[in-house]
Amino acid sequence: MELLRFGGAVQTFFRGIGCKLALAILVLIVVLTCGLSIPVIRVMDDFLLQELVKRGLSVSRSAATPAAFSILAGDRLALDNLAAKIEESQADIGYLVIVGSQGTILAHNRLEAVGRPFEELRGTVVAWSEEYQVQKVERDGGRFFEFRTPVEFAGKKVGDVYLGLDAADLEVSRTEARRTIAAVGAAVIALGVAATWLLSALITVPVKRLASGVARLKAGEEPVIEVVSGDELGRLTRDFNEMARTISGQKQSLQSHARDLEESYTSMVRILAASIEARDEYTLGHSTRVANLSVLIGRRLGMDAAELKCLALSCFLHDLGKIRVPDAILKKAGPLSPQELEAIRRHPAHGAEILQLSGKLQRHIPAVLHHHEWYNGQGYPAGLKGDDIPLSAAILTLADTYDALTSCRPYRAGRSCEEAMREIRRYRGIQFAPELTDRFLEILPGYVEEEFTLSWDLAV
Predict the structure, then answer these.
(1) How many domains is the chain partitioned into structurally?
(2) What is the DSSP letter of 384?
(3) Is the pTM of the predicted complex or chain greater than 0.90?
(4) CATH code: domain of residue 297
(5) Cα angle vertex 162, ends 156, 166, to 5°?
(6) Which among 54, 57, 53, 39 has a CA at the least distance from the CA of 126?
């Protein structure tokens, strides 16, 4: 679990704007550092090579002047001594050779080579002029920078001085220089990383606060974000706080207007239902009682507040179509003729037609249109059967039937609760859905025993 939480935190971190900004700046620093290191290394390599060339030319020239006098004087001992001392003076001197005009070695730091022909090698030319030549060669199993300096006297060439500086020393110097540059580059990158995270924090912390504020504003809160700077982010934070206050105020105003509209809407429905029931003193309060019973059933079924409210309003509107039924039929004390019965049976369809005129009321059409359907398909107006009957209509049917059975009519007295329950139980699976009937019969005893009347506020 801890590993999963850690993984989630890491994933969130890498998705954050701070990480993206830091990585972008870090990549830029690394690219610039590496890009600058390459030319610096090249400049350093060239500098070290030029310094080596200068030193080698200085040594070879310092040997050429005394060598000229010794060659003319034929002083071989002086030449050998000169070669030996110069070779001993610096550790990186691999060899010093003084060659006569005939190409014979006159002096060498290794005495056994004296008197032999000097083998000139062709290597990579490093520097060249009329006075000297420097090239990189391989001689006696080693790599050397070989300097050739002419030995002249009175403008006449009498020989050459060959000086070999060990190339390994230059490589060592170059390696040390590159390590130094790499260390400096690493230090720059490390400082860049620290500066990047600091800059990222300075920029992204206010942004994260704004993002959190937006989430809280979306959740319905009125966030107030602390302003910690006077720059653009600070001004943006102040503007956000002002915007949040405006939005919260407008939201409260809209909610108040919405409540007013909803209250007006529900009041209109109840007034409409009361107007219909006022035509017949025997059905006065019928819709309210049906709504109370239906809401109790809906609660037993686990409906939420919005579903219960819609169900209650459908109950108030279920007899809306009776507006089109003449009073002579609606208030007739005796049995109805087939034509009059057909006129009564058209009231669900008439109610649905009226509700169709209002977009707000159209959601109540299923319950209003089908509240006289039977579970076995023998009802009207569509002859729906079983689960094809909308749940709201099936609930309304039970509540409507019970209230009709227990209410007095001009042509009969109202039945007792027990008689109504027996009648409803008798039509279980015929007119009413079996499971719904069982739930309804479970709540009826408590409803009657407590003389329960559900208020409108509780119903919605």
Answers:
(1) 2
(2) -
(3) no
(4) 1.10.3210.10
(5) 160
(6) 53
Report d(CA 75, CA 95) in Å as an integer.
20
For the stretch 144-199, pLDDT in tens is: 999 999 988 888 888 999 988 888 888 888 888 888 888 887 887 788 777 777 76
Residue 105 phi, psi (nearest 5): -70, 120
Same domain, 161 and 284: no
Find residue 317's DSSP bridge partners.
none
Q: Is the dihedral of CA 296, 302, 306, 310 positive or negative?
A: negative
Report the candidate in 141, 134, 147 with the shortest Cα–Cα distance to residue 168.
Answer: 141
Range of the structural domain that residue 413 is part of: 279-459
Q: Is 361 helix (H, G, I), strand (E, B) or coil?
A: coil
Q: pLDDT tier at 277 (50, 70, 90 boundaries)?
A: low
Q: Is residue 158 part of a domain?
A: yes
Q: Are strands 105-108 and 124-128 parallel, antiparallel or unpaired?
A: unpaired
Q: From the centroid of its chain, how far is CA 358?
A: 43
**Strand, coil or helix: 105:** strand
User: The domain spanning residue 26 has which CATH number?
Assistant: 3.30.450.20
pLDDT digits 0-9 by tens, 62-117: 888 888 888 888 888 888 888 888 888 888 888 888 998 888 988 887 778 888 89
Q: For residue 90, what are its two tokens?
A: 């610096």
Count Cβ atoms below 10 Å from residue 184 Cβ, excluding itself: 13
Peptide bond preceding 434: is omega within 30 degrees of 0, i.e. cis? no
Q: Please indicate, yes or no, if residue 272 is contained in any of the structural domains.
A: no
Position 298 in a domain: yes
Beta bridge partners of residue 138, listed in sequence order: 143
How far apart are the C-alpha atoms of 292 and 283, rounded to whole Å? 15
Tell me the pLDDT tens digit for each residue of 194-223: 777 776 666 666 767 777 777 777 776 777
* Same-domain pairing of 441 and 320: yes
Residue with tokens 């934070």: 237
Q: And the tokens for 303?
A: 């409906």
199: CB partners within 8 A, 6+ apart: 21, 22, 25
